[in-house]
């Protein structure tokens, strides 16, 4: 395996900045990875732009979770090929790269079907992008990096990173060892790996210094975190949260995505004892049927999940939950679907992601018998989503008249309006001054809409009373 050139030795080229267009699909970790790709290319003179036209390099960071991900990629590549050829006809050049999980899983097909692609790299290889760009300039074909490297990619990323804003993502864990029957992650992201706690804390401090106030910790199975602590002992996610909460300037902490099997006693207690840990948890259940959960290889029953929810709510009574639901997993019967609806009613979710089952190549479920026909999947998904939307609207409406702390993240859509987030991750809008961006302020909720909240700042009301 070829080692990359250390980034500290790569001097920024003289002259105009090169234009870098990045497009990311899928999960929040892809968003984080896309930002780090920009960081590792900055020493080569690349600066992000908002449109692909005229770009010197384009990176498509792909997701393989959803159906037809490969078709979507090739459709996009077909459009970008025209831009690449147009620029080359004018004497210029464009480096076209495909990154992420589709690249990892379908690298050979990408090279065969789109020979004009210059670089194909998996999610564990993007720290070597500077070297790949140099190799692409010399190679007579695509540079392909889809192995799982022996070295730790985070050790090769630059300390300097572009500010993410008031709210930011921080990857602390990658990969998954659970091997759910429907999921491609173990095959595209590899085995579970947890970053050392010292590295996570150092990156968190840098983010706070750049203005971040809410930090969302990311991992394919984030609550399985087991990184080495500064003391040499293994730290779980709970211990990491305690340490992060001590960093001055961090107002809020979140984490996603969790697996029910890894919600241990210490993590439940952290929800009770750490004020910075927000009362909102994404905890995928996927199905309410024990028979389907077993076929999915989830390792828990519906009752296990419900007991866990009860324990979490006992520790943090104001906790709100979101989840993932799959409709129509191979072998799912009508009674299994009804069991899922029953679990949703029992829990009462504040939000959720729900999808029809779609086969991912190479996963056990892709070859399973007893497929559910599309009409049944469509109907079941519609029934699931109708119930989930009803629950979300009810949760938002329940906040009407309450005063909640909102972290303001930027201007709203209307003049004089601010946009922020409640502790339960709902968007909230209120009239206010931009000086409040990055601060937490009390907001009285006037109306709970299905997907957002409208409120008024309490300090603004106090000022009006004083003026009167």
Account of the 3D structure:
- The protein has 468 residues and is of the alpha/beta class.
- It folds into 3 domains: 7-145, Rossmann fold (3-Layer(aba) Sandwich), CATH 3.40.50; 153-397, Alpha-Beta Horseshoe (pyruvate-formate lyase- activating enzyme); 403-467, Nucleic acid-binding proteins (OB fold (Dihydrolipoamide Acetyltransferase, E2P), Beta Barrel).
- The protein is 34% helix and 22% strand.
- It contains 13 helices and 21 strands.
- The protein has helices spanning 28-41, 69-89, 101-113, 129-138, 185-188, 197-209, 237-245, 265-273, 290-295, 302-315, 334-347, 374-397, 458-467, and strands at 18-24, 46-48, 57-62, 95-100, 119-121, 143-145, 167-171, 173-174, 193-194, 214-218, 226-228, 234-236, 252-256, 280-282, 320-327, 351-356, 403-411, 417-421, 427-431, 440-448, 453-457.
- The protein is globular and about 65 Å long.
- The relative contact order is 0.08.
Terminal CA distance reads 73 Å
- Helical segment tally? 13
What class would the helix/strand composition place it in? alpha/beta
Biggest β-sheet: strands ordered side by side in the sheet: 2-1-3-4-5-6
Unreliable stretches, pLDDT < 50, 5 or more residues?
1-14
The proportion of residues forming helix, as a percent range, comes to 25-40%
* CATH fold category name of the largest domain: pyruvate-formate lyase- activating enzyme
Q: Tell me, briefly, the overall form.
A: globular
| Overall number of domains | 3
Level-1 CATH class name of the largest domain: Alpha Beta
